[in-house]
């Protein structure tokens, strides 16, 4: 896509939350270009990148007309509303709109951040040498964050909005894949497993989120 003004540019790193807006773009067939950002090399701290996202994080979405939208949930909701992707989120006035926003916020603000302590224990350990203890505690917190999701899906599933697929299923699938042993999480959370299988039915989700075939055990 040589004409960069005609499409979105998604500043992206694999195995990060940037996979979710990539999924939205590909699911909807929206013209875009993926721009890899090397976090290991510290590219996100460069002046050039900070001009795109002052927080120094991926994803960052450059708009065709200029300007940027940052933060995973905000980017996804922006794209969904701008392009009328009602199949991925209930529009304003829809009876499911409130539930969608509630669970989008929960996944973004409660489940997703719980992984930071596990993968970056050196940032949060109170003293050097306590990283293993911090990681063990973090795993408990991650499981705690998943329990309300499991309870909700068990009572109201198979999807977050009952039988209606939305962005939430793809978000859930991405976060499941961040778990140290995704198969273990799915085994102990049967309703989450069924919801995960719904996301795995989508070719764009399989491709963008790296969902292994058969991980959900065919429970759809």
TrEMBL record:
Instruction: Name the coiled-coil region(s).
Output: none
The residues covered by the GST N-terminal domain are 5-87
Under the heading Pfam families, the entry gives: GST_N_2
Instruction: Specify the protein name.
Output: Glutathione S-transferase family protein
Q: Which organism is it from?
A: Nisaea acidiphila
Taxonomy of the source species: Bacteria, Pseudomonadati, Pseudomonadota, Alphaproteobacteria, Rhodospirillales
């Amino acid at each position: 896509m040589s004409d960069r003004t005609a499409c979105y540019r998604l500043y992206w790193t694999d195995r990060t939350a940037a996979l979710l807006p990539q999924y939205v773009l590909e699911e909807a067939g929206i013209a875009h270009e993926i721009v890899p950002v090397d976090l290991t090399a510290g590219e996100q701290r460069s002046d050039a990148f900070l001009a795109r996202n002052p927080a120094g994080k991926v994803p960052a979405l450059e708009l065709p007309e200029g300007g940027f939208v940052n933060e995973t949930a905000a980017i996804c909701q922006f794209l969904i509303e701008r392009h009328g992707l009602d199949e991925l989120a209930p529009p304003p006035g829809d009876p499911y709109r409130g539930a969608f926003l509630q669970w989008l916020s929960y996944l973004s603000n409660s489940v997703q951040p719980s992984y930071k302590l596990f993968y970056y224990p050196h940032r949060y350990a109170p003293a050097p040498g306590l990283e293993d203890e911090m990681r063990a505690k973090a795993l408990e917190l991650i499981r705690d964050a998943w329990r309300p999701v499991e309870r909700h899906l068990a009572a109201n599933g198979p999807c977050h909005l009952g039988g209606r697929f939305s962005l939430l299923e793809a978000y859930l699938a991405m976060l499941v894949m961040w778990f140290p042993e995704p198969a273990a999480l799915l085994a102990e959370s049967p309703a989450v497993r069924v919801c995960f299988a719904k996301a795995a039915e989508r070719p764009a989700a399989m491709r963008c989120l790296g969902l292994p075939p058969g991980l959900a055990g065919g429970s759809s």
